[in-house]
């Protein structure tokens, strides 16, 4: 449904964007396209956010020490995308294979190719000039004597991720609006395990996993069933003595040795661990292990954000938020891009950012604060009624395309193309059928052709046999 034109003049705002990962980059672009003045704060020295690989890990491998020097990225060296590049890219800037020997032309490329795509996007739209690199946001809060103005306190950082003695101290700046795009793959969630305080082995969170070498000849218990858990368990199995995967999704009939591996077993969740090093599973089986690897996800974390309790994180629910974006009491002056998970992220970020940009310029109107809160409460009630845990509030999964199309309607944009939806479903089925090889064997060639036909209007790259067959 087309959005009616604005009934009053469009307004340009001074907007801060926190983070220069994929969400922050597309948000900055769409805000500037809408006529806003934009400043992007990025604590790292380049764009890309979580897609900037570093071999560095944190001094606390499990990520519980609040005084640790934090490493932003959670990438492991072997990571390849678990979504095909055609569906991954921004809607109007396709993620096509480049005819360049330095690039990765595969349909499911490695992480470096995604970073290079984001760098291409940044150059194409001149976003670099908006970014304050090596600048950490220390505090974001409302200005006491100015209604709906935000003060951002920031500080420069050195290459070693610590404040340097030669850089100036804190800087305060005033903005009309703030868009939070700081990602959610940095603060580990840890499984609660009875007896862990006396268990003598080591623990690590996948946030600090990079390569399998440290697990050589070890007996490893890995907790989790996410895409990264699957990848990492197979990575480690190449060098470890034994890998025991514990997950809620493992039922009695699926436990036991993993087909195709001599040293990998599936188990239900851990029941308890003991001071002699044993790990007991809920089916009564046990193993003597030297390390537990938590592939158990992440917490939303906004240590810089001060809203006087208006926005909270409760059991990993960031709320209250209208349509996953706006806190009703602070809308539209505070917003979030990129909170949903189990989604195709980049197109979702783009539609969220277009809506935010248009709302801030008065091109689109939000409902009243009361109406937004009613919608939020109805959404939370529907989750509760369906038995969905609070921590899954931002897990969109199969509802993501309905959500994307709702956003598109608010912005007057076309709905998500059918091939994107079909490709997402086909990839999911293929991943189940070919868990070891889905990235290199697939049967949705017709959808790849449809994608490249669609891309012609955005790019001079032509559909080539090389692109289709990779």
Count every beta strand, where a strand is a DSSP E run of 2 or more residues.
22
Widest β-sheet, arrangement of strands: 9-17-10-11-13-12
How much of the sequence is in beta strands?
Answer: 15-25%
Summed over residues and divided by their number, the pLDDT gives a mean of 92
Q: Choose one word for the global shape.
A: globular
Q: What count of helical segments does DSSP give?
A: 10
| Euclidean distance between termini CA atoms | 38 Å
| Main β sheet profile | 6 strands, mixed
Spans of at least 5 consecutive residues with low confidence: 1-5, 159-167, 461-470
Helix content percent band: 25-40%
Supply Rg. Answer: 23 Å
How does the helix and strand content classify structurally?
A: alpha/beta
Task: Throw out a few tags for this protein.
five-stranded parallel sheet; alpha/beta; disordered C terminus; 22 strands; 470 residues; 18% strand; 25% helix
Write the layout of secondary structure elements.
Elements: E1 14-18, H1 22-33, E2 37-41, H2 85-88, H3 111-124, E3 131-132, E4 135-142, E5 150-156, E6 171-175, E7 177-180, E8 187-188, E9 202-205, E10 219-223, H4 227-237, E11 242-246, E12 256-257, E13 264-267, E14 270-273, E15 278-281, E16 286-288, E17 291-294, E18 298-299, E19 305-306, E20 312-314, E21 317-319, E22 334-336, H5 345-360, H6 369-385, H7 400-411, H8 418-433, H9 445-455, H10 465-469
Parallel strand pairs: 1-2, 1-7, 2-3, 4-19, 7-22, 9-17, 10-11, 10-17, 11-13
Antiparallel strand pairs: 4-5, 5-6, 8-18, 12-13, 14-15, 15-16, 20-21
Helix pairs in contact: 1-5, 5-7, 8-9
